[in-house]
Structure formats: structure tokens, C-alpha cells
Design brief:
The structure is a single chain. The protein is 54% helix and 7% strand. It is mostly helical. It is elongated and about 125 Å long.
């Protein structure tokens, strides 16, 4: 508790239902080590560490270039899009047209239909004809 009061928060995140205050963690220490390696002067190194530094530097830069090119080539050739996206788009278009057609039909008919709602697909018996012989 005293640590939070003595040390100001590193980051304050505001939410709709409150706030969270983040204080320094182990991540800060790893950031410091990254800054130390970036501040390293290769001119002051001996041959062995200098070769290792240059190899790691070239490897890191090559990996960044490959990652960049790979992402853009995959996007260009369409590898990142779904295989049958055109089918999905067509299905969505057909469903939207069908829904629009049903809405127009409901507006035109105003609730009046030829077939009662509960009797769709039901088999109905034909009407019986009245004859004179059926009288009492």
C-alpha cells in the first residue's frame, strides 16, 4: 500500500466503470535492457563481440524485411482473404434481397394473405356439396 502512495502510477487507464492504475513491473526492467543494447557502440567492441553484434543486427534487420515483404505479398496474392469469400458475399446479397422482397410484400399486402398463417402446407379436405338427399 505504501508503494502505491509513494510512487506515481506509470499509466492510468480509464474505463466506463472505473480506472486502473499501473505501476512499474518487470516489463520496465526488460525495456531498460533493450535500451542498453541499443545504446551499445560497436566501435568499442573487440573482434569477437563485434562480429556477434553485426551478425545479430543483420539477422534482425533481415527478419524485419522478410516479415514486411511476406505480409504485403500475402495480401497482394490474396492468401489472407477467405478462400470462398465471393460465395459468402453472394449468399449475403441473396439473403438481403430476399428480406427486402419479404418486407415489400408485407407492406403491399398489409397483413392480408391468401393462406391463413397456421395452415401453410396443411392438407385440407375439399368442401362437401349439399344435396337434397341429405335432408331429414
Amino acid at each position: 500500500m505504501s508503494l502505491k502512495k509513494d510512487k506515481p502510477p506509470r499509466k492510468v487507464i480509464h474505463f466506463s466503470d472505473g480506472t486502473i492504475e499501473e505501476y512499474s513491473t518487470d516489463e520496465d526492467e526488460s525495456d531498460k535492457s533493450a535500451r542498453i543494447t541499443s545504446e551499445l557502440n560497436p566501435r568499442t567492441l573487440s573482434w569477437g563481440p563485434w562480429i556477434w553484434y553485426q551478425t545479430a543486427n543483420v539477422g534482425s534487420k533481415s527478419l524485419q524485411v522478410c516479415d514486411f515483404l511476406g505480409e504485403h505479398l500475402a495480401s497482394f496474392f490474396g492468401i489472407t482473404t477467405p478462400k470462398y469469400q465471393y460465395e459468402i458475399d453472394e449468399y449475403d446479397r441473396i439473403m438481403a434481397e430476399e428480406e427486402e422482397r419479404q418486407q415489400k410484400e408485407e407492406l403491399e399486402l398489409g397483413g392480408w394473405t391468401d393462406v391463413p398463417i397456421g395452415s401453410e402446407g396443411a392438407v385440407q379436405s375439399p368442401p362437401t356439396a349439399y344435396s337434397d338427399t341429405n335432408k331429414f
